Amino acid sequence: MNIKTYSETKRQHAENLKQTIVEAAATILQEQGPEEVTIRKVAEKMECSTKIIYNLFNNKDGLIKLLYLEGCKVLAEAFQSVSKQETMENYLRALCEAYWDFSCNYTNYYQLMFGGAFHEFKPEEESIQATTTALQQFTQVVTEAIEAGLIEEKDPLQVVHVIWASLHGVIHLHLGGHIESIKTTKFLYDNSVTRLIQAYMGSSSS
Amino acid sequence: MNIKTYSETKRQHAENLKQTIVEAAATILQEQGPEEVTIRKVAEKMECSTKIIYNLFNNKDGLIKLLYLEGCKVLAEAFQSVSKQETMENYLRALCEAYWDFSCNYTNYYQLMFGGAFHEFKPEEESIQATTTALQQFTQVVTEAIEAGLIEEKDPLQVVHVIWASLHGVIHLHLGGHIESIKTTKFLYDNSVTRLIQAYMGSSSS
DNA sequence: TTTTATATAGAAACACTGTTTCTGATACTG
DNA sequence: CAGTATCAGAAACAGTGTTTCTATATAAAA
């Protein structure tokens, strides 16, 4: 075995270790919340020094970034598991419902990704790309709706962003404690969804 | 001077000191951002021990809470300085614009109040009340619009919340770095505003 | 094989945070 | 004036992200 293959195995080992650490961090995130994800706690769970984490991920942001990407995967899967509906309007509704469910079932991931839990972490190119990928299901439906003439607006990304922002706004105000009861929040959420679909697809249906 | 008046002067002095400390904290907030508002930095600016801050405000949350209320005042004033428009639609548009301006001109306040900058701080009764007061201008216009038959929905608070959440969603996604350029963000914001007004007041105007 | 070089992991330290404790001075009470 | 109680200041505690130092273990060279 020459030098190339050696460094290759070492690189692989590092990559495996990296993945295990991310999984440990993800466990802490889900079980204890974003603010409990600390380098020391992850190191303790891995039974290793904090230094090894700093060697693999440059700093905490490097670890948080991978958790962000992990969250994007979970969100993407949530969207993908939505069964295609008969009408596009219903499909869009179902996707909005899936987004809501994601924020409920993976609240700690949601906080980390979109909640502003880490003021130090700002998504860069790769993270934004992952977010776009996660929302692709959404974009796809909107694009098709535009092509089918159900939505007048021409830029699908713009429509997706407006919808996303509305849904996020309700969820985030709730998570921030500005809308107290979950029941009220869900009511507002459904209201927003209806309002959005009405605004974008209003001229055609019913 | 009897005991009553003495303790009264002492109480007043404490109240004055409290206000000065809040102002010092507010200065740091505006000049350096939310994460720079630390007990030690405030104490340094006041040239006093940290203990005195802990005596007046129980903990950091107590101080943050007052900054939150301060921010509500600023927001309320921003709304109040909006001159009444001819049509209610335009008035609503102007209020939305004022909310945008507030998030731009007082970004650090916005982060503290609605950005989730302090995961430890959750608004309680008084803070929520202050928020409602700040948004009262909004509620007022919506109420009038409902009474005038311009908006079908009967519950003004619900309408205000849906609008607020939509606007907040766009702003917060931008502050979180998920929508990159400010230009794109403003475009989405205006789009949301138009869409909201269209959805709520669509059946009447032009 | 022996020596040299390098990489790296672990412990401890640094600079910061919110918060508490201890102590000494100051100011009210009897 | 003597005693007491309050309260501000410094220091300490427990935590954070991050860096430095050192010893070891492993790879390369002789």
UniProtKB/TrEMBL annotation, chains A, B:
DNA-binding region residues: the ranges are 38-57
Protein name listed in UniProt: TetR/AcrR family transcriptional regulator
Ranges in a coiled coil = none
Instruction: Work out whether the entry's keyword set contains DNA-binding.
Output: yes
- GO molecular function: any one? transcription cis-regulatory region binding
Organism encoding this protein? Gracilibacillus oryzae
Q: Where is the HTH tetR-type domain?
A: 15-75
Lineage top rank: taxon = Bacteria
This protein's UniProt keywords:
DNA-binding, Transcription, Transcription regulation
